[in-house]
Design goal:
Layout lengths: L1 E5 L5 H10 L3 E5 L7 H5 L3 E2 L3 H7 L2 E4 L4 H9 L13 E4 L5 H12 L4 E4 L2 E2 L1 H7 L2 E6 L2 H11 L3 E8 L3 H29 L4 H8 L7 H12 L8 H18 L4 H15 L11 H8 L6
Parallel strand pairs: 1-2, 1-4, 2-3, 4-5, 5-6, 8-9
Antiparallel strand pairs: 7-8
Helix pairs in contact: 1-6, 4-5, 8-10, 8-11, 8-13, 11-12
C-alpha cells in the first residue's frame, strides 16, 4: 500500500521513518525540500507537492505545526484537495483547532474522500521508537483502513468520537502534560531548595502515587539541564492557545493551564522558545533565585 507522509519535522520525521522501516511504500513531502533527502535515501519517494502525494497515495498522513499550516497543505495552491480522489483517506496527526478540523474535513468530503483527526502524544522519543499514543476522531471504519500504517509508529490507538473529537482529546492531553510539568518543576525546585540529592529523590517518588511520564522522562533532563526538545516551548504554547480558545468558547475555567501559558510566554520573551517544554522550570528558578541541578 502506498502511504503519503507530509511534514518531516520533530515528530513527523520519526513517524515517516517507522513507516519506511515497516515496509510501506512511502511518498514524502516537506515544505523545506532538503529534509526529504534522508528519507529518499532510506527508500521513500519524494513528492513534488501535497497534491502530487495525494494523487499517488490511497492514504496520506500529515503532521505539521498549526492550523494555518494544515489549511495551506490541504486547501492552498498545490494542496491535497487538488489530488484527492473518491475513497482517499487523510489522517491528520497535527494538533490544530477542532473547528478548523471540522472545516477541512468538510472540504475533503466534497471530493468523496475521508478525514481522520489523529493527533499524537509521546514526544520525539515516541515518534522515533514507534510508541506514540494516537487519539482519533472520525469514522471508525476509516481508522481500520489506516490502522496497519498507524501501528508502525504508535503503541496506543484510541477512537474517541466523531470528527474533531481527536483534537479535543489531544487538548485534554496537553492540559495534563503542562500542569504535570508545572508540578514536576515545583517539586524539583523545592527539593533543590532543601539541598536534597535530586536523583535520589526522583527515584524515591517516581514509583509511587506521584509518578508520571513527565517526572520520569523530563525530570532527569531538568536535573541535567538538558533542554533538548522532545516538544518545544513554542509548539507547546501553540497547543495551549488552542486549549484556552476552546475553553473560552465553552465557558470553562482553566486557571492552572492559563498560568503555564503565561509562564511560557515569559520564557519565549527570554529566547527559550526552541527549548524543550520542560524548560518551564526556568520560570520557577527565576522566582526562586537559584537553579535546579546546580
Amino acid at each position: 500500500m502506498d502511504v503519503g507522509f507530509i511534514g518531516l519535522g520533530i515528530m513527523g520525521s520519526g513517524m515517516a521513518r517507522n513507516l519506511i522501516d515497516g515496509g510501506f511504500d512511502v511518498v514524502v513531502w516537506n515544505r523545506t525540500a532538503a529534509r526529504m533527502a534522508p528519507f529518499v535515501e532510506a527508500g521513500a519517494t519524494a513528492g513534488t507537492s501535497p497534491a502530487d502525494v495525494a494523487r499517488r497515495c490511497e492514504i496520506v498522513m500529515l503532521c505539521v505545526s498549526d492550523s494555518p499550516d494544515v489549511r495551506e497543505v490541504v486547501a492552498g495552491a498545490g494542496g491535497m484537495i487538488e489530488g484527492l480522489h473518491a475513497g482517499s483517506l487523510v489522517v491528520d496527526h497535527s494538533t490544530i483547532s477542532p473547528s478548523v478540523t471540522v472545516e477541512l474535513a468538510g472540504k475533503v468530503e466534497t471530493k468523496g474522500a475521508h478525514w481522520l483527526d489523529a493527533p499524537v502524544s509521546g514526544g520525539s522519543e515516541g515518534a522515533a521508537r514507534g510508541t506514540l499514543a494516537v487519539m482519533v476522531g472520525g469514522d471508525a471504519r476509516q481508522l481500520e483502513r489506516a490502522r496497519s500504517a498507524i501501528d508502525a509508529y504508535a503503541s496506543t490507538v484510541s477512537h474517541v468520537g466523531p470528527t474533531g473529537a481527536g483534537q479535543m482529546a489531544k487538548l485534554v492531553n496537553q492540559i495534563l502534560v503542562v500542569v504535570t510539568g508545572l508540578a514536576v518543576s515545583e517539586a524539583l525546585v523545592f527539593a533543590q531548595g532543601a539541598d536534597l540529592e535530586l536523583r535520589s529523590v526522583l527515584a524515591a517518588v517516581e514509583g509511587g502515587a506521584a509518578g508520571s511520564w513527565m517526572l520520569s522522562n523530563r525530570g532527569p533532563q531538568m536535573i541535567e539541564r538538558d533542554w533538548r526538545p522532545g516538544f518545544t516551548i513554542d509548539l507547546q504554547q501553540k497547543d495551549l492557545r488552542l486549549v484556552l480558545e476552546a475553553a473560552d468558547e465553552m465557558g470553562v475555567s482553566l486557571p492552572a493551564t492559563a498560568l503555564v501559558f503565561q509562564m511560557y510566554r515569559a520564557l519565549q520573551h527570554r529566547g527559550f522558545g526552541t527549548e524543550g517544554n520542560h524548560a518551564l522550570v526556568k520560570a520557577l528558578e527565576a522566582l526562586a533565585g537559584f537553579e535546579v541541578g546546580r
